[in-house]
Design a protein that fits this description.
Shape: flat
Strand content: 15-25%
Helix content: 40-55%
Distance between the termini: 37 Å
Radius of gyration: 34 Å
CATH architecture of one domain: Roll
Length: about 625
């Protein structure tokens, strides 16, 4: 019955059906037809609810981040959805606990600071300037709007205030620094003997009986999963963008439309500053002393390198580069924009401390010219993007209509929209290559409509593409035959035999060493060969990272008796290591820059530990309820 309705649902009849469907929405609203799932709470922290919708949005954002990080190496089966969801939820709970504490302790971040942070992010800049359009588009791709992102930045900056407060309370003693240096700069001298996996492999033979026995042992788990291949058409917005015809007249018209917004460059000032942090004893007196030196004619950059406590600009003579409105906190900007070129401000106080500001040069507000190469490039991209988006929306509507009216074939879709019918690789319910990496594609390919009814899928949003697919081939789950897995079983048995043989060789040599011999006394034979003595430090990568890691995890030799350990190398070889000497780093030998670097690193490490302990304590004290039944 449903199929007959669908077969006839074209033209006026289709619109009549749509009209009937719309009537209930008109009277009752679409919300009446939705479940209340999006509003359900998955947790409550200090009375504040974390909803299912918020958790799902954060989950999708984390999932997309993992996809972007791994690129072509990403596979859906790498991720356990339940574990990722739990990780995301716990993170949101900890954020809520910390936010409640920050609010209770009256931590605040000014709007100007939030704005300056966002404007300074490279991801939102075009040609060195903040782009509101790029800002909104970038957030949209992440499933966020500006309000949500600004709230997140504000939360981050507020949290940074707490981290800074914790960092300022950290103390590291000279004795602790010396102990850290002794371990960090420790040197270890060792010998090692490598047993060749390839040499042993050549002596290994796996008979049919062993393969058959292993097959019977693993038979229950040797399953070829259910899989499908699909035919599909894709409407690609990026491809449409490349097909757009661009004319000079069109770009000129777009420029006139956008020049007072997109292409207007605010007044900029090239500035330097000297910062004395608010936490510093006698901060005002120290900035006044610096001001007196400048008034006496000393070079601003030289004084900044000596006095300033801003790590980002100190070594550059306080240079901040070109600064426009909204990039700095209000008191700093007010003072900077009141200066003439070459002038130095009076001491200026902000939440970061006391500043002296010098304006080196001024660029007045201007509109970037139409014929500038960067403007032409930006206009071309903007025009193509706009036209492609409009064309995409038009064709997407047609794609949906034609695929719906012709559910039994992709041919009409391909013909009417000028698209190529493509065929995917095999994919399982856990995913696959190409379009098989999309959750939406997997869900559609294994849906009842596509898999069992044999119809076209609904149009699927996959990035900046819309895809309609149908099943090309389908194979049910089945046991694998012995012949299908024979080579894998032979390889596994061979690898196990090689590992067992290598371990036996190393144990035999260790028995000889127990009788008072050293590695140098053992001959090269059967693929075993001694290597040159090595003196290594932590972080060395030669002769192999796994060997270095093993060496620095070994017990210190006692009474001149070496320590021994084995390490499995990435190429399958085995190494027997003889640790002969350990020499600690001497703090007295460290130069001042090394001592300062060690102190900063150790304080940062201690601050992280203290902050994590604080978070754990806040979580333990907080009123947190997790509603596991809603997972």
């Amino acid at each position: 019955m449903l199929q007959k309705i669908r077969d006839r649902a074209t033209g006026p009849l289709a619109w009549f059906i749509v009209g009937i469907i719309c009537i209930p929405f008109a009277f009752f609203g679409i919300e009446a037809f939705r479940s209340d799932g999006a509003a359900r709470s998955v947790a409550k922290v200090e009375g504040q609810e974390i909803t299912e919708a918020a958790l799902q949005q954060r989950y999708q954002q984390r999932y997309q981040q993992l996809q972007q990080m791994l690129g072509e190496n990403f596979r859906p089966d790498m991720i356990n959805p339940d574990m990722l969801r739990e990780s995301v939820l716990q993170g949101m709970i900890q954020e809520a606990v910390t936010d409640a504490y920050l609010a209770d302790q009256s931590y605040r971040v000014a709007d100007e600071t939030v704005l300056a942070t966002i404007r300074g992010e490279q991801a939102f800049q075009q040609n060195g300037h903040f782009s509101p359009t790029l800002y909104r588009d970038t957030l949209a791709r992440q499933g966020m709007n500006p309000v949500q992102y600004e709230d997140r930045v504000r939360t981050f900056l507020t949290d940074q205030q707490l981290r800074q407060a914790v960092s300022n309370s950290v103390i590291v003693t000279e004795a602790e620094l010396a102990a850290e240096w002794a371990i960090d700069r420790q040197q270890r001298r060792f010998n090692h003997r490598v047993y060749s996996a390839q040499a042993v492999r050549e002596s290994i033979s796996i008979d049919d009986a062993a393969v058959e026995a292993r097959y019977e042992e693993r038979k229950a788990s040797l399953i070829t999963p259910e899989r499908v291949r699909v035919h599909y058409v894709e409407l690609d917005q990026m491809a449409l963008k490349q097909q757009v015809d661009v004319t000079a007249e069109a770009l000129q018209a777009l420029y006139e439309e956008q020049k007072d917004t997109r292409f207007k460059v605010a007044e900029e000032r090239k500035a330097r500053h000297i910062l004395v942090r608010a936490s510093e004893d006698d901060a005002r007196a120290k900035i006044d002393a610096a001001a007196e030196r400048l008034a006496a004619g000393e070079d601003f950059a030289a004084v900044a390198k000596e006095v300033s406590q801003d790590p980002g600009s100190k070594n550059k003579g306080g240079d901040l580069g070109w600064v426009s409105a909204g990039m700095m906190v209000a008191p700093f900007e007010d003072a900077m924009f009141a200066l003439e070129a070459g002038a130095v401000s009076e001491p200026v106080e902000t939440q970061f401390g006391w500043h002296l500001i010098q304006v080196q040069d001024i660029r007045p507000e201007r509109v970037r010219a139409f014929d500038e190469p960067e403007v032409q490039t930006e206009l071309d991209d903007l025009y193509r993007e706009r036209e492609a988006r409009a064309r995409f929306d038009e064709l997407a509507e047609k794609l949906e209509q034609v695929s719906f009216e012709n559910p039994a074939s992709l041919d009409p879709v391909a013909e009417q929209l000028g698209l190529e019918i493509k065929t995917s690789e095999w994919m399982t319910r856990d995913g696959g290559a190409g379009i098989g990496s999309s959750d939406a594609v997997i869900a559609a390919a294994f849906s009842d409509l596509v898999l069992n009814a044999g119809e076209n899928s609904l149009p699927l949003d996959v990035g900046r593409r819309q895809i309609v697919l149908r099943v090309a081939e389908h194979e049910e789950e089945r046991p694998q035959t012995l012949e299908e897995v024979r080579s894998d079983l032979v390889e596994a048995l061979t690898r196990e035999a090689v590992e067992e043989k290598l371990q036996a060789m190393a144990e035999a040599d260790r028995a000889a060493l127990a009788d008072g011999k050293t590695l140098a006394d053992l001959p090269a034979e059967n693929g075993a060969e001694n290597q040159k003595p090595v003196t290594a430090e932590r972080g060395d990568s030669a002769p192999a990272r796994v060997i270095i890691a093993t060496v620095f995890g070994m017990a210190t030799p006692q009474d001149g008796t070496p320590s021994y350990e084995t390490a499995r190398l990435p190429n399958g070889n085995l190494a027997l290591i003889e640790l002969t000497q350990v020499t600690d780093g001497n703090w007295a030998d460290a130069i001042e820059t090394e001592k300062e670097s060690t102190k900063r690193r150790m304080m940062a490490k201690r601050a992280d530990q203290e902050y994590m302990a604080l978070q754990a304590a806040l979580r333990a004290q907080a009123d947190v309820k997790v509603f596991a039944t809603t997972f």
